[in-house]
Design brief:
Blueprint: H1 10-20, H2 28-34, E1 39-43, E2 46-49, E3 54-57, H3 60-63, H4 72-84, H5 97-109, E4 114-120, H6 123-140, E5 148-152, H7 161-166, H8 170-173, E6 183-186, H9 191-194, H10 200-218, E7 223-228, H11 244-254, E8 258-262, H12 276-279, E9 286-289, E10 301-306, H13 307-313, H14 328-343, H15 346-352, H16 354-364, E11 371-377, E12 380-385, H17 401-412, E13 415-416, E14 418-420, E15 423-426, H18 434-457
Parallel strand pairs: 3-13, 5-6, 5-7, 7-8, 8-9
Antiparallel strand pairs: 1-2, 2-3, 4-10, 9-10, 11-12, 12-15, 14-15
Helix pairs in contact: 1-2, 4-14, 5-14, 10-11, 16-18, 17-18
The protein binds 3-[O-phosphonopyridoxyl]--amino-benzoic acid.
Length: 464
Protein backbone atom coordinates (compact mmCIF):
# COMPACT_ATOMS: atom_id res chain seq x y z
CA UNK A 1 0.00 0.00 0.00
CA UNK A 2 1.28 3.47 -0.84
CA UNK A 3 2.38 5.26 2.32
CA UNK A 4 0.99 8.75 2.94
CA UNK A 5 4.17 10.37 4.17
CA UNK A 6 4.10 13.80 5.75
CA UNK A 7 6.84 15.96 4.25
CA UNK A 8 5.82 19.30 5.75
CA UNK A 9 7.89 20.49 8.75
CA UNK A 10 6.04 20.34 12.07
CA UNK A 11 6.40 24.07 12.75
CA UNK A 12 4.77 24.89 9.42
CA UNK A 13 1.86 22.54 10.09
CA UNK A 14 1.43 24.02 13.55
CA UNK A 15 1.35 27.55 12.15
CA UNK A 16 -1.27 26.60 9.57
CA UNK A 17 -3.27 24.77 12.23
CA UNK A 18 -3.22 27.83 14.48
CA UNK A 19 -4.13 30.11 11.58
CA UNK A 20 -7.13 28.21 10.23
CA UNK A 21 -8.25 25.31 12.39
CA UNK A 22 -10.61 25.81 15.32
CA UNK A 23 -10.26 22.91 17.78
CA UNK A 24 -12.93 21.37 20.02
CA UNK A 25 -12.62 21.94 23.78
CA UNK A 26 -9.36 23.84 23.35
CA UNK A 27 -8.17 27.29 24.41
CA UNK A 28 -7.33 28.61 20.96
CA UNK A 29 -4.75 31.25 21.85
CA UNK A 30 -2.95 28.88 24.23
CA UNK A 31 -2.75 26.19 21.58
CA UNK A 32 -1.52 28.75 19.07
CA UNK A 33 1.39 29.59 21.38
CA UNK A 34 2.28 26.00 22.10
CA UNK A 35 1.48 24.30 18.77
CA UNK A 36 -0.57 21.14 18.43
CA UNK A 37 0.98 17.71 18.56
CA UNK A 38 0.37 16.37 15.08
CA UNK A 39 -0.37 12.69 14.66
CA UNK A 40 0.52 11.33 11.27
CA UNK A 41 -0.09 7.57 11.40
CA UNK A 42 -0.92 4.69 13.71
CA UNK A 43 -0.71 0.94 14.04
CA UNK A 44 -2.21 -1.32 16.72
CA UNK A 45 -1.97 0.69 19.96
CA UNK A 46 0.81 3.01 18.73
CA UNK A 47 0.62 6.51 17.27
CA UNK A 48 3.38 8.20 15.30
CA UNK A 49 3.67 11.98 15.40
CA UNK A 50 5.15 14.41 12.87
CA UNK A 51 8.49 14.27 14.70
CA UNK A 52 8.64 10.50 14.38
CA UNK A 53 7.88 9.76 18.06
CA UNK A 54 6.05 6.52 18.79
CA UNK A 55 3.38 7.07 21.41
CA UNK A 56 1.39 4.44 23.29
CA UNK A 57 -2.28 5.40 22.95
CA UNK A 58 -3.81 4.82 26.35
CA UNK A 59 -7.06 6.49 25.24
CA UNK A 60 -7.91 4.56 22.03
CA UNK A 61 -8.10 7.86 20.16
CA UNK A 62 -11.03 9.34 22.03
CA UNK A 63 -12.34 6.16 23.71
CA UNK A 64 -13.18 4.69 20.35
CA UNK A 65 -10.48 2.73 18.50
CA UNK A 66 -11.46 -0.53 20.19
CA UNK A 67 -10.09 -2.79 17.44
CA UNK A 68 -6.78 -0.87 17.25
CA UNK A 69 -5.34 1.12 14.37
CA UNK A 70 -4.34 -0.10 10.94
CA UNK A 71 -6.86 -2.84 10.21
CA UNK A 72 -6.82 -3.43 6.47
CA UNK A 73 -10.13 -5.32 6.65
CA UNK A 74 -11.88 -2.05 7.53
CA UNK A 75 -10.11 -0.20 4.74
CA UNK A 76 -11.26 -2.87 2.29
CA UNK A 77 -14.84 -2.81 3.60
CA UNK A 78 -14.97 0.96 3.05
CA UNK A 79 -13.43 0.74 -0.42
CA UNK A 80 -15.81 -2.04 -1.51
CA UNK A 81 -18.84 -0.13 -0.26
CA UNK A 82 -17.70 3.15 -1.83
CA UNK A 83 -17.35 1.43 -5.17
CA UNK A 84 -20.71 -0.32 -4.92
CA UNK A 85 -22.92 2.33 -3.31
CA UNK A 86 -21.17 5.32 -1.69
CA UNK A 87 -24.40 6.94 -0.55
CA UNK A 88 -28.05 6.41 -0.43
CA UNK A 89 -30.53 7.60 2.16
CA UNK A 90 -32.84 5.64 4.42
CA UNK A 91 -35.70 8.16 4.29
CA UNK A 92 -39.02 7.86 2.45
CA UNK A 93 -39.33 4.09 2.34
CA UNK A 94 -35.90 3.26 0.97
CA UNK A 95 -33.14 1.21 2.50
CA UNK A 96 -29.83 -0.43 1.63
CA UNK A 97 -27.95 -3.58 2.52
CA UNK A 98 -25.30 -2.19 4.93
CA UNK A 99 -27.88 -0.44 7.14
CA UNK A 100 -30.12 -3.52 7.13
CA UNK A 101 -27.26 -5.86 8.01
CA UNK A 102 -25.88 -3.59 10.71
CA UNK A 103 -29.29 -3.17 12.35
CA UNK A 104 -29.71 -6.95 12.30
CA UNK A 105 -26.28 -7.46 13.90
CA UNK A 106 -26.91 -4.86 16.60
CA UNK A 107 -30.27 -6.46 17.43
CA UNK A 108 -28.44 -9.77 17.82
CA UNK A 109 -25.74 -8.32 20.10
CA UNK A 110 -27.92 -6.06 22.23
CA UNK A 111 -29.48 -7.51 25.39
CA UNK A 112 -33.17 -8.23 25.97
CA UNK A 113 -35.63 -6.99 23.39
CA UNK A 114 -33.47 -4.10 22.19
CA UNK A 115 -34.09 -5.12 18.61
CA UNK A 116 -34.49 -1.89 16.65
CA UNK A 117 -31.96 0.71 15.56
CA UNK A 118 -32.30 4.38 14.63
CA UNK A 119 -29.00 5.46 13.08
CA UNK A 120 -27.17 8.75 13.56
CA UNK A 121 -23.75 10.11 12.67
CA UNK A 122 -22.42 10.43 16.23
CA UNK A 123 -23.20 10.01 19.91
CA UNK A 124 -24.42 13.60 20.17
CA UNK A 125 -26.85 13.11 17.32
CA UNK A 126 -28.07 9.83 18.77
CA UNK A 127 -28.80 11.47 22.12
CA UNK A 128 -30.66 14.26 20.33
CA UNK A 129 -32.70 11.51 18.70
CA UNK A 130 -33.33 10.05 22.15
CA UNK A 131 -34.72 13.31 23.52
CA UNK A 132 -37.23 13.48 20.68
CA UNK A 133 -37.88 9.74 20.72
CA UNK A 134 -38.79 9.43 24.41
CA UNK A 135 -40.98 12.53 24.34
CA UNK A 136 -42.68 11.37 21.13
CA UNK A 137 -43.18 7.92 22.68
CA UNK A 138 -45.14 9.40 25.58
CA UNK A 139 -47.07 11.74 23.27
CA UNK A 140 -48.10 8.80 21.12
CA UNK A 141 -49.18 6.98 24.26
CA UNK A 142 -51.45 9.89 25.17
CA UNK A 143 -49.22 11.38 27.87
CA UNK A 144 -47.83 14.51 26.20
CA UNK A 145 -47.01 16.10 29.56
CA UNK A 146 -44.33 13.45 30.17
CA UNK A 147 -41.41 15.56 28.93
CA UNK A 148 -38.92 15.80 31.76
CA UNK A 149 -35.64 14.00 31.33
CA UNK A 150 -33.44 13.43 34.36
CA UNK A 151 -29.68 13.20 33.99
CA UNK A 152 -26.66 13.64 36.27
CA UNK A 153 -24.18 16.40 36.96
CA UNK A 154 -20.79 15.63 35.43
CA UNK A 155 -22.35 13.28 32.88
CA UNK A 156 -21.25 13.63 29.26
CA UNK A 157 -23.82 12.94 26.57
CA UNK A 158 -22.49 15.03 23.68
CA UNK A 159 -21.96 18.57 22.56
CA UNK A 160 -24.99 19.55 20.47
CA UNK A 161 -27.66 21.77 22.05
CA UNK A 162 -29.79 18.80 23.05
CA UNK A 163 -27.12 16.33 24.10
CA UNK A 164 -25.08 19.06 25.80
CA UNK A 165 -28.19 19.86 27.83
CA UNK A 166 -28.53 16.22 28.83
CA UNK A 167 -24.90 16.27 29.92
CA UNK A 168 -24.09 17.73 33.28
CA UNK A 169 -20.99 19.74 32.42
CA UNK A 170 -21.51 23.18 33.94
CA UNK A 171 -18.84 24.74 31.72
CA UNK A 172 -20.81 23.64 28.68
CA UNK A 173 -24.13 24.89 30.04
CA UNK A 174 -22.50 28.27 30.57
CA UNK A 175 -21.96 28.76 26.84
CA UNK A 176 -24.67 29.14 24.20
CA UNK A 177 -27.84 29.10 26.25
CA UNK A 178 -27.99 25.54 27.55
CA UNK A 179 -29.78 23.56 28.91
CA UNK A 180 -32.98 23.30 26.91
CA UNK A 181 -36.18 23.23 29.00
CA UNK A 182 -37.28 20.19 30.96
CA UNK A 183 -33.90 18.59 31.53
CA UNK A 184 -33.05 18.10 35.20
CA UNK A 185 -29.87 16.97 36.91
CA UNK A 186 -29.15 15.00 40.05
CA UNK A 187 -25.77 14.40 41.69
CA UNK A 188 -23.30 11.81 40.42
CA UNK A 189 -22.25 8.69 42.38
CA UNK A 190 -18.65 9.87 42.80
CA UNK A 191 -17.81 8.55 46.27
CA UNK A 192 -14.15 9.64 46.21
CA UNK A 193 -14.91 13.31 45.70
CA UNK A 194 -18.37 13.66 47.23
CA UNK A 195 -18.92 10.74 49.61
CA UNK A 196 -17.88 12.60 52.77
CA UNK A 197 -18.15 10.42 55.86
CA UNK A 198 -20.52 7.88 54.26
CA UNK A 199 -19.40 4.39 53.31
CA UNK A 200 -19.42 3.79 49.55
CA UNK A 201 -22.50 1.55 50.01
CA UNK A 202 -24.47 4.18 51.94
CA UNK A 203 -23.41 6.84 49.47
CA UNK A 204 -24.45 4.75 46.44
CA UNK A 205 -27.93 4.33 47.91
CA UNK A 206 -28.19 8.00 48.81
CA UNK A 207 -27.26 9.10 45.30
CA UNK A 208 -29.68 6.61 43.69
CA UNK A 209 -32.45 7.90 45.94
CA UNK A 210 -31.91 11.40 44.60
CA UNK A 211 -33.49 10.01 41.44
CA UNK A 212 -36.61 9.05 43.36
CA UNK A 213 -36.68 12.44 45.09
CA UNK A 214 -36.38 14.24 41.75
CA UNK A 215 -39.15 12.11 40.21
CA UNK A 216 -41.45 12.90 43.13
CA UNK A 217 -40.54 16.60 42.99
CA UNK A 218 -41.37 16.80 39.27
CA UNK A 219 -44.34 14.44 39.56
CA UNK A 220 -43.96 10.94 38.09
CA UNK A 221 -46.66 11.81 35.55
CA UNK A 222 -44.27 14.41 34.06
CA UNK A 223 -41.09 12.36 33.79
CA UNK A 224 -40.22 10.74 30.47
CA UNK A 225 -36.80 9.20 31.06
CA UNK A 226 -33.59 8.92 33.04
CA UNK A 227 -30.34 8.90 31.06
CA UNK A 228 -26.97 7.74 32.38
CA UNK A 229 -23.66 6.24 31.34
CA UNK A 230 -23.20 2.81 33.00
CA UNK A 231 -19.71 4.06 33.94
CA UNK A 232 -19.22 7.82 33.53
CA UNK A 233 -16.41 8.28 31.02
CA UNK A 234 -15.52 11.89 30.24
CA UNK A 235 -16.50 12.83 33.80
CA UNK A 236 -13.39 10.94 34.96
CA UNK A 237 -14.26 7.21 34.79
CA UNK A 238 -16.53 7.29 37.80
CA UNK A 239 -17.50 3.78 38.87
CA UNK A 240 -20.63 3.89 41.04
CA UNK A 241 -20.67 2.02 44.37
CA UNK A 242 -22.24 -1.43 44.08
CA UNK A 243 -25.47 -0.34 45.74
CA UNK A 244 -26.19 2.35 43.14
CA UNK A 245 -27.44 0.63 40.00
CA UNK A 246 -29.75 -1.95 41.62
CA UNK A 247 -31.53 0.91 43.39
CA UNK A 248 -31.74 3.02 40.22
CA UNK A 249 -33.16 0.03 38.37
CA UNK A 250 -35.78 -0.46 41.07
CA UNK A 251 -36.76 3.23 40.91
CA UNK A 252 -37.15 3.53 37.12
CA UNK A 253 -39.17 0.32 37.08
CA UNK A 254 -41.37 1.38 39.99
CA UNK A 255 -42.27 4.71 38.36
CA UNK A 256 -42.50 3.36 34.80
CA UNK A 257 -39.82 5.74 33.54
CA UNK A 258 -37.76 4.94 30.45
CA UNK A 259 -34.09 4.20 31.06
CA UNK A 260 -31.59 5.38 28.46
CA UNK A 261 -28.16 3.80 28.92
CA UNK A 262 -25.57 5.92 27.15
CA UNK A 263 -23.20 3.23 25.90
CA UNK A 264 -21.15 5.52 23.65
CA UNK A 265 -18.01 4.70 25.66
CA UNK A 266 -19.10 1.55 27.53
CA UNK A 267 -20.34 -0.26 24.42
CA UNK A 268 -18.55 -2.74 22.19
CA UNK A 269 -16.38 -4.51 24.70
CA UNK A 270 -15.03 -1.63 26.76
CA UNK A 271 -16.31 -3.09 30.05
CA UNK A 272 -15.66 -6.75 29.15
CA UNK A 273 -19.10 -7.43 27.67
CA UNK A 274 -20.65 -6.15 24.48
CA UNK A 275 -22.44 -3.48 26.51
CA UNK A 276 -21.89 -1.84 29.89
CA UNK A 277 -25.56 -2.59 30.64
CA UNK A 278 -24.65 -6.28 30.68
CA UNK A 279 -21.69 -5.74 33.00
CA UNK A 280 -23.82 -3.70 35.41
CA UNK A 281 -27.02 -5.70 34.95
CA UNK A 282 -29.18 -2.86 33.62
CA UNK A 283 -32.31 -3.28 31.51
CA UNK A 284 -32.47 -0.10 29.44
CA UNK A 285 -35.27 0.80 27.04
CA UNK A 286 -32.81 2.61 24.75
CA UNK A 287 -29.03 2.39 24.41
CA UNK A 288 -27.02 5.18 22.80
CA UNK A 289 -24.09 3.88 20.75
CA UNK A 290 -21.27 5.43 18.67
CA UNK A 291 -17.44 5.39 18.97
CA UNK A 292 -16.53 1.67 19.30
CA UNK A 293 -19.36 0.75 16.92
CA UNK A 294 -16.96 1.46 14.06
CA UNK A 295 -13.83 1.64 16.25
CA UNK A 296 -13.78 5.27 15.12
CA UNK A 297 -12.87 4.36 11.53
CA UNK A 298 -16.07 6.03 10.34
CA UNK A 299 -18.44 8.45 12.08
CA UNK A 300 -21.57 6.53 13.04
CA UNK A 301 -23.87 6.29 16.03
CA UNK A 302 -27.38 5.27 16.86
CA UNK A 303 -30.11 4.43 19.32
CA UNK A 304 -30.84 0.76 19.96
CA UNK A 305 -34.47 0.67 21.00
CA UNK A 306 -36.78 -1.82 22.73
CA UNK A 307 -39.60 -3.50 20.84
CA UNK A 308 -42.12 -1.63 23.00
CA UNK A 309 -40.70 1.82 22.24
CA UNK A 310 -40.15 0.98 18.57
CA UNK A 311 -43.68 -0.30 18.12
CA UNK A 312 -45.20 2.86 19.62
CA UNK A 313 -42.93 5.16 17.58
CA UNK A 314 -43.58 3.04 14.50
CA UNK A 315 -47.33 3.51 14.97
CA UNK A 316 -47.01 6.99 13.45
CA UNK A 317 -44.49 9.06 11.54
CA UNK A 318 -41.42 10.10 13.53
CA UNK A 319 -40.46 13.42 11.93
CA UNK A 320 -36.78 13.02 12.52
CA UNK A 321 -33.64 11.82 10.74
CA UNK A 322 -30.23 12.76 9.41
CA UNK A 323 -28.93 12.70 5.84
CA UNK A 324 -26.29 10.28 7.02
CA UNK A 325 -28.55 8.04 9.17
CA UNK A 326 -27.19 4.57 8.41
CA UNK A 327 -24.62 5.89 5.92
CA UNK A 328 -23.69 2.87 3.77
CA UNK A 329 -19.91 3.25 4.03
CA UNK A 330 -20.01 3.88 7.77
CA UNK A 331 -22.43 0.96 8.24
CA UNK A 332 -20.28 -1.39 6.16
CA UNK A 333 -17.19 -0.46 8.19
CA UNK A 334 -19.07 -0.85 11.48
CA UNK A 335 -20.30 -4.26 10.41
CA UNK A 336 -16.79 -5.38 9.55
CA UNK A 337 -15.52 -3.98 12.85
CA UNK A 338 -18.15 -5.96 14.78
CA UNK A 339 -17.20 -9.07 12.84
CA UNK A 340 -13.55 -8.66 13.82
CA UNK A 341 -14.35 -7.91 17.48
CA UNK A 342 -16.57 -10.99 17.52
CA UNK A 343 -14.60 -13.53 15.50
CA UNK A 344 -11.24 -12.61 17.01
CA UNK A 345 -12.70 -12.98 20.50
CA UNK A 346 -11.67 -9.45 21.49
CA UNK A 347 -14.56 -8.90 23.90
CA UNK A 348 -14.06 -12.29 25.56
CA UNK A 349 -10.33 -11.59 25.90
CA UNK A 350 -11.04 -8.29 27.65
CA UNK A 351 -13.41 -10.08 30.03
CA UNK A 352 -11.28 -13.12 30.77
CA UNK A 353 -7.65 -12.36 30.03
CA UNK A 354 -6.21 -8.94 29.26
CA UNK A 355 -8.92 -7.07 31.21
CA UNK A 356 -8.17 -8.88 34.49
CA UNK A 357 -4.44 -8.48 33.81
CA UNK A 358 -4.84 -4.74 33.21
CA UNK A 359 -6.96 -4.50 36.37
CA UNK A 360 -4.24 -6.13 38.48
CA UNK A 361 -1.52 -3.93 37.02
CA UNK A 362 -3.61 -0.75 37.04
CA UNK A 363 -4.62 -1.26 40.67
CA UNK A 364 -0.91 -1.53 41.54
CA UNK A 365 -0.70 2.16 40.62
CA UNK A 366 -2.85 2.68 43.71
CA UNK A 367 0.36 2.08 45.70
CA UNK A 368 1.93 5.20 44.27
CA UNK A 369 2.18 7.88 47.00
CA UNK A 370 0.15 10.35 44.92
CA UNK A 371 -2.69 7.94 43.99
CA UNK A 372 -5.69 7.68 46.31
CA UNK A 373 -7.85 5.21 44.43
CA UNK A 374 -7.41 3.20 41.24
CA UNK A 375 -10.77 2.21 39.73
CA UNK A 376 -11.17 0.10 36.64
CA UNK A 377 -13.96 -1.75 34.83
CA UNK A 378 -12.83 -3.77 31.84
CA UNK A 379 -10.59 -1.40 29.96
CA UNK A 380 -11.67 1.94 31.34
CA UNK A 381 -9.86 3.08 34.44
CA UNK A 382 -9.01 6.11 36.53
CA UNK A 383 -6.63 7.23 39.25
CA UNK A 384 -7.62 9.83 41.82
CA UNK A 385 -4.55 11.97 42.53
CA UNK A 386 -4.23 13.29 46.05
CA UNK A 387 -1.67 14.72 48.46
CA UNK A 388 -3.29 12.74 51.32
CA UNK A 389 -4.92 9.39 50.65
CA UNK A 390 -6.62 8.80 53.97
CA UNK A 391 -8.30 12.21 53.93
CA UNK A 392 -9.20 11.89 50.21
CA UNK A 393 -7.83 15.42 50.04
CA UNK A 394 -7.75 17.71 47.03
CA UNK A 395 -4.53 19.57 46.18
CA UNK A 396 -3.73 23.11 47.17
CA UNK A 397 -4.21 25.53 44.30
CA UNK A 398 -6.67 25.32 41.46
CA UNK A 399 -8.28 21.88 40.92
CA UNK A 400 -6.84 20.06 37.90
CA UNK A 401 -3.40 21.69 38.05
CA UNK A 402 -1.62 18.54 39.23
CA UNK A 403 -3.67 16.41 36.83
CA UNK A 404 -2.51 18.63 34.00
CA UNK A 405 1.13 18.37 35.16
CA UNK A 406 0.76 14.59 35.17
CA UNK A 407 -0.78 14.56 31.68
CA UNK A 408 2.12 16.65 30.40
CA UNK A 409 4.58 14.16 31.90
CA UNK A 410 2.69 11.29 30.26
CA UNK A 411 2.93 13.07 26.90
CA UNK A 412 6.65 13.64 27.43
CA UNK A 413 7.00 9.91 28.20
CA UNK A 414 5.14 9.01 25.00
CA UNK A 415 1.99 7.82 26.70
CA UNK A 416 -1.44 9.26 25.98
CA UNK A 417 -3.29 9.38 29.28
CA UNK A 418 -5.94 12.03 29.84
CA UNK A 419 -6.65 14.03 32.96
CA UNK A 420 -10.09 15.10 34.12
CA UNK A 421 -9.45 17.53 36.91
CA UNK A 422 -7.11 15.61 39.18
CA UNK A 423 -8.16 12.18 37.92
CA UNK A 424 -5.97 10.41 35.36
CA UNK A 425 -7.86 8.17 32.97
CA UNK A 426 -7.13 5.37 30.53
CA UNK A 427 -9.19 3.65 27.88
CA UNK A 428 -6.74 1.79 25.61
CA UNK A 429 -7.54 -0.12 22.43
CA UNK A 430 -9.11 -3.44 23.45
CA UNK A 431 -6.43 -5.32 21.51
CA UNK A 432 -3.68 -4.12 23.86
CA UNK A 433 -1.32 -6.99 24.75
CA UNK A 434 0.13 -7.92 28.13
CA UNK A 435 3.52 -6.47 27.11
CA UNK A 436 1.88 -3.23 26.06
CA UNK A 437 -0.03 -3.13 29.35
CA UNK A 438 3.30 -3.46 31.16
CA UNK A 439 4.68 -0.56 29.11
CA UNK A 440 1.60 1.53 29.87
CA UNK A 441 1.90 0.92 33.62
CA UNK A 442 5.66 1.59 33.67
CA UNK A 443 5.23 4.88 31.80
CA UNK A 444 2.30 5.88 34.00
CA UNK A 445 4.33 5.21 37.20
CA UNK A 446 7.28 7.21 35.86
CA UNK A 447 4.96 10.07 34.89
CA UNK A 448 3.33 10.02 38.34
CA UNK A 449 6.79 10.22 39.96
CA UNK A 450 7.78 13.16 37.80
CA UNK A 451 4.46 14.96 38.29
CA UNK A 452 4.70 14.47 42.07
CA UNK A 453 8.21 15.96 42.09
CA UNK A 454 6.97 18.91 40.09
CA UNK A 455 3.89 19.37 42.29
CA UNK A 456 6.18 19.41 45.34
CA UNK A 457 8.53 21.90 43.69
CA UNK A 458 5.57 24.18 42.96
CA UNK A 459 4.23 23.89 46.50
CA UNK A 460 1.05 22.15 45.36
CA UNK A 461 1.60 18.84 47.14
CA UNK A 462 -0.44 19.73 50.21
CA UNK A 463 -4.13 19.43 51.10
CA UNK A 464 -6.31 22.29 49.91
N1 LIG B 1 -22.19 9.99 25.09
C1 LIG B 1 -21.06 9.67 25.75
C2 LIG B 1 -21.13 8.80 26.95
C3 LIG B 1 -19.82 10.15 25.28
O1 LIG B 1 -18.70 9.83 25.95
C4 LIG B 1 -21.00 11.26 23.49
C5 LIG B 1 -22.18 10.76 24.00
C6 LIG B 1 -21.05 12.10 22.27
O2 LIG B 1 -20.54 11.44 21.19
P1 LIG B 1 -19.96 12.25 19.93
O3 LIG B 1 -19.73 11.16 18.94
O4 LIG B 1 -21.01 13.19 19.47
O5 LIG B 1 -18.73 12.97 20.39
C7 LIG B 1 -19.79 10.94 24.13
C8 LIG B 1 -18.51 11.48 23.57
C9 LIG B 1 -13.46 13.40 26.50
C10 LIG B 1 -14.40 13.28 25.35
O6 LIG B 1 -12.81 14.43 26.59
C11 LIG B 1 -15.44 12.38 25.40
C12 LIG B 1 -16.34 12.32 24.34
C13 LIG B 1 -16.18 13.14 23.25
C14 LIG B 1 -15.13 14.04 23.21
C15 LIG B 1 -14.23 14.14 24.27
O7 LIG B 1 -13.36 12.48 27.32
N2 LIG B 1 -17.42 11.45 24.45
Amino acid sequence: MAQLTNTVPTAELQALDAAHHMHPFTHGAELGRKGARIITSAEGCWLTDSEGNRILDGMAGLWCVNIGYGRQELVDAAARQMAELPFYNTFFQTSHVPAIRLAEKLAELAPGDLNHVFFAGSGSEANDTNIRMVRTYWEMKGEPQKKAIISRWNAYHGSSVGSGSLGGMKGMHAQGGLPIPDVHHIDQPNWWAEGGEMSPEEFGLARARQLEEKILELGPENVAAFIAEPVQGAGGVIVAPETYWPEVSRIVKHYGILLIADEVICGFGRTGNWFGSQTLDLAPDIMTVAKGLSSGYQPIGGSIVSSEVASVIGGGEFNHGYTYSGHPVAAAVALENLRLLDEEGVVTRVREDTGPYLKERFESLGEHPMVGEAKIVGMMGSLALTPDKSARAAFKGEGGTVGYLCRERCFANNLVMRHVGDRMIISPPLVISREEIDALIARAWKSLDEAMAEAKAQGLFAPA
